[in-house]
Amino acid sequence: MALILGIESSCDETAVAVIDGAAATLAARIVAQRIASQDDEHRPYGGVVPEIAARAHAETLAPMVGAVLRDAGLRLDQIDAIAATAGPGLIGGVMVGLVTAKALAMAADKPLLAVNHLEGHALSARLAEPGLAFPYLLLLASGGHCQILEVRGLGQYRRLATTIDDALGEAFDKTAKLLGLGFPGGPAVERLAREGDARAVPLPRPLMGSAEPHFSFAGLKSAVMRARDAGLHRPADIAASFQQAAIDCVIDRTRRAMAAAGPVNALVVAGGVAANAALRGALTALAAEAGLPLVAPPPKLCTDNAAMIGWAGAERFAAGLTDPLDALARPRWPL
Ligand code: KG4
Ligand code: ZN
């Protein structure tokens, strides 16, 4: 039994979880978890305001740690190690989470695990799918990142592709803003797209067919803006056409990366955009082409959460990879 307390505060979700790293099923692995979204605080500004986020984390986190321990029926001294996101992310929020974790680790005399948020997303598939073995090919698509990685083992990540401009989630969020769908944008675009015709609006597919498997979404966003300004199309048709263009790019780029990668056991998708059902459907078909399973964590484990941070901590703890109490909070931290 390895009980890990996980803390996530790198963007606009304050989250705490207790993970049992030795349990054999997803349900048993997540002993308790809570998550508080700050959507209402950021909505008036149409995006995440770092200072508001940091203050909200500072107010919410400490009581949430107490509540999650109570939910789990555990005292702090029964926890084996404390894990927190140490980056990359909005630095004020990261510091709130990491400093809280350090204080708990010091008070209880337990090891600290300074977790890379991207590693949390990368390993979330192994939390959800206990049978998933390394190596696997990972599409990591969130609000801040869009990458394809060959995950060879714990701490062994080979980056095959990244975005040369916007992240995929950012493209969804900007499209939502252009269409007046509010915040957060991705789920709103997905909902509206269901009512639209994906062939109605001709939109570009940047970098599709290029030899390197990189991504680009800035040109697609500009085309969405022109389509909206032209005033000829229903918002639902723009949303559906945008989503289809974005998915076509992702599938083409991922197919290219699969050809460049070594042998893998699965295609995995993680990060907030992996909650998108249309994307999951298209990736399932792509994986089947290559005779691979698609592993996609349940949507609630795709968007930011503390279970994935606790789980990444559990994997690191099991490998003896604990961190000193002066571990740094890092705004940038590539995998
Ligand atoms: O991983 P995440 O929760 O936070 C970051 O680490 O960035 O990802 C958030 C991103 C946002 O851009 C959000 O709009 C997008 O994931 N997202 C979605 C969906 N749910 C969340 N994008 C498309 N469809 C969705 N259903
Ligand atoms: Zn994230």
UniProtKB/TrEMBL annotation:
E.C. number(s) listed in UniProt: 2.3.1.234
Subcellular location(s) per record: Cytoplasm
Cofactor note: Binds 1 Fe(2+) ion per subunit.
Gene Ontology CC: cytoplasm
InterPro entries: ATPase_NBD, Gcp-like_dom, KAE1/TsaD, TsaD
Molecular function terms, GO-annotated: iron ion binding; tRNA N(6)-L-threonylcarbamoyladenine synthase activity
Reaction equations catalysed: L-threonylcarbamoyladenylate + adenosine(37) in tRNA = N(6)-L-threonylcarbamoyladenosine(37) in tRNA + AMP + H(+)
Location of the Gcp-like domain: 30-311
Keyword annotations: Acyltransferase, Cytoplasm, Iron, Metal-binding, Transferase, tRNA processing
GO annotation, biological process: tRNA threonylcarbamoyladenosine modification
Pfam families: TsaD
CDD domains in the cross-refs: ASKHA_NBD_TsaD_bac
EC category: transferase
Residue positions binding Fe cation: 117, 121, 304
Cited function: Required for the formation of a threonylcarbamoyl group on adenosine at position 37 (t(6)A37) in tRNAs that read codons beginning with adenine. Is involved in the transfer of the threonylcarbamoyl moiety of threonylcarbamoyl-AMP (TC-AMP) to the N6 group of A37, together with TsaE and TsaB. TsaD likely plays a direct catalytic role in this reaction.
PANTHER family according to UniProt: TRNA N6-ADENOSINE THREONYLCARBAMOYLTRANSFERASE, TRNA N6-ADENOSINE THREONYLCARBAMOYLTRANSFERASE, MITOCHONDRIAL
Family: Belongs to the KAE1 / TsaD family.
HAMAP family: TsaD (MF_01445)
Protein name, entry field: tRNA N6-adenosine threonylcarbamoyltransferase
